[in-house]
Design goal:
heterodimer, A: 489 residues, alpha+beta, Arc Repressor Mutant, subunit A, nine-stranded mixed β-sheet, three-stranded antiparallel β-sheet, elongated, B: alpha/beta, Amidase signature (AS) enzymes, 2 domains, eleven-stranded mixed β-sheet
Chain lengths: 489, 484
Amino acid sequence: MSGAWQRDGYEAVIGLEIHVQLDTASKMFCACPNRYGDEPNTNVCMVCLAHPGALPVANAEAVRQSARVGLALGCRIPDTSEFSRKQYFYPDSPKAYQISQYDQPLCAEGSFHVPGEGAFTVGITRAHLEEDAAKMIHAGGDAGRIQGSAGSVVDFNRAGTPLLEIVTEPDLRSPEQARRFLTLLRATVVAIGASDCDMEKGSLRADANVSIRPIGSEGYGTKTELKNMNSFRFLERGIEAELERQLGLVLAGEEVRQETLHFDPATGGLTSLRSKEEAHDYRYFPEPDLLPVTQDPDALAALAGQLPELPVARFARLTGTGLPESTALLLATEPELAAYFDDLAARVGDPKVAANWVMGELQAHLNATGIAADASPVTPERLAGLVALVVEGAINQTSAKEVFQALVEDPTATAAGVVEARGLAQMGDADELGAIVDGVLAAHPDEVAAFKGGREQVIGFLVGQCMKASGGRADAKALQALLRERLSA
Amino acid sequence: MAIDVIGLTAERAAALLRGRECTAEELAQAYLDRIAAVDGEIHSYLHVDPERTLAAARAQDAGSGEGLAGVPIAYKDLLSTRGVPTTAGSRILEGFVPIEDADVVRWGDEAGLVSLGKTNLDEFAMGSSTEHSAYGPTRNPWDTARVPGGSSGGSAAVVAAGCAPWALGTDTGGSIRQPAAFCGLVGLMPTYGSVSRFGVVAFACSLEQVGPMTLTVRDAALLQQVIARDSGRDATCTGPREPIAVPEPSRLDGVTFGVPRAELEAGVEEGVRARFDESLAIAESLGARLVDVELPYARHGLAAYYVIAPAEASANLSRFDGVRYGLRVDAPDVRAMYEATRDAGFGAEAKRRIMIGTYALSAGYHDAYYVQAQRVRTLIRRDFDAAFAGVDAILLPTAPTVAFPIGARLDDPLAMYANDIFTLPVNLAGIPALSVPNGLSEGLPTGLQIIGPAHAENLLLRLGAAFEAEHAFDPVPPALRSAS
């Protein structure tokens, strides 16, 4: 397979567990606001603080959004699923159990295709709905962990945030595939509108199960679980580091130990959090405070029909219009940029021309300013006005860049207005161009002689001189044609 | 006026208030006086706040004064009360003050009921005698050397002793019906899911319901009218299927009772059995037909219950960790703090059930215990379904014994658990049952348990009213009759 990680006769076997915080108005099992960034412990109640007597009521919107994500991942949505209690003691878990799902998840048995060069398909084992834990901050001590810290505080605002855990089959064969898969998965969930999937805020989190095995083997090696990879780059680097570590062990004749590891992006190092022996017995059992979740097949069919265009479909559509795969993939995975592109392409009428502008001037401007496509002052409508002027030959490329910059700087300006005000209209008048060309030829007899002597490349210099004389407003192609005409006369 | 609260029903209390024969404040004061006089000995209240009670009564006197407004009530201390300490009978919740009322308490407030206080119980409702309260045992007003039953023993004792006209209890395996039987009261365990559990400190979520403990069947119906509702805050609650009606005594023509005779062989005290047989004769004399029914799996109810209830309890009690509220015993690190807090906070019975439940859910034992118990539960449910295909209701003694002496079973958990043998299967099936007084054995009350299909509360109340009228039982303990 293209892009596979293979070293010294071993290949990588990787599965991901992805946690997506759902963007619902309220929390998973209570009416508290589901909002990031508020004052600590303000969005709390009896339920998410686990006071005695509190009871959970499942958030119907979270169930609906989870089903939509499941459908987008090609999952089967069973008629009935069930919440279960997953028990463990930790101060971030107010009930000392997390309401999760165990053997009857909301979404089962999906598959997800990652297109483009070296396309691959990843099996989705399941996607289940659960509640997030509270956020803990440990003061002092060792690497922000509770053991050895001077003191710990808990913010229960996050406790009870709806969380969709997506578990893949061990189908990924390289760190790069893991990154590509997660990138496309993120784009899909964002396109659906179920989550903003912001890794910095923790609304998208990924753990990786990593092992290696001899190439061609069907079995699996001992796996380790990698936690805390809070960016696409760290995910790729963390898995890479762990694969190298495991390979080193195996080549040295040592065994890989089943354990949970923490990847430190600062040092690139891996530290053990707990070994298999310390693994929890979560003592799952069905949540008696909640009834099973039932799905109506008609409602599910309607949900499936109402999904927006997903990145995989968008990729196929864009490559179908002749866009290069790299451009299509970028647009497929960046929903705001894709929406911008679609709007612009519709106005301009030519997807390739629109793609050139989006991938060129617009991207450069967005990258330089850090603005999102949908927040750029240069709206698709304003940019379309500029593109139209270029397409009809009213201005040249050099002027177009200047006009674009003017549109960035003055949100009220229009392309046509800038061209008019700055006199950037392309010189189309043959007499005017002819006068410039004649003047330049007269002023550079040596170059004229050289051209006539066979050194045709001096024409570039002459074009440049003409352009300078026109104040940058001449059409370079027209100038070149006119120069050749005069020189060969 | 001087109000004699001994034996005063809630219905009669409401009539006094509506007839302006007394004010809510006077009535509340009469109960507070009664509590001050006798509760030192009975120890049925864990929390009484006279000022708060009198202020609530005065507010009712100032209001429109309809229905039950101004009638006092006592709440089992498993029910959350906003701003009023709620301990669940446990040290681990000592000093805990809820931020919200339980739904049933809120509805009591909305009906104008005036809270007299919070009643004693076995810790987290785990027990059948109220001896497992961290705050000391409650005594039975019929014989203060004996237990009032449990776990709602405090609620039973306050009503029997004239310290409240009625009370709310909770029933997880018999905790309303058995203490009602032991104290000569009416106790209704409603259909699972007909009363909101929101705000009820959880012991075993899939088994427990809140219900009335009263002097009469009519009072039970009146209180059930207040609490049988769906608030949207208990996902397992749908409210009652039909409005609760207050019954009149009637004949029982056309009613068929099932009698599971095989179950009665399992060690019923002679006097309890004799009273039960008399009730069967009463049923026939009122025109009812008796048929034998089989509940072949009911005898496994005890074993299944003592896996399922502790399994749920082991998870429900995990939240008491010293982090957010209640007791905290400081220790060098968080794990040691958990251990020290839970060791100091839980009593022996709570610890026993946490251990049993944790074990039953552990990897390697989960299928043999928890899953197997759930299968038994399903079979018991089917037993009842099959029986109700042929009968309207099933009759059993509420408990196989009368109230036992304090301390008699404290060292023998299995003997204690066995007292609930006739009540546990009903919780496992999620169906309603009513306990009505069934005459005395050796001077102590016995109970008749009438079990019905889901949402048959109105039928049970009607049947109960018929037995009640025939028995003409005086719910006031003899010692109190002479005192009044």
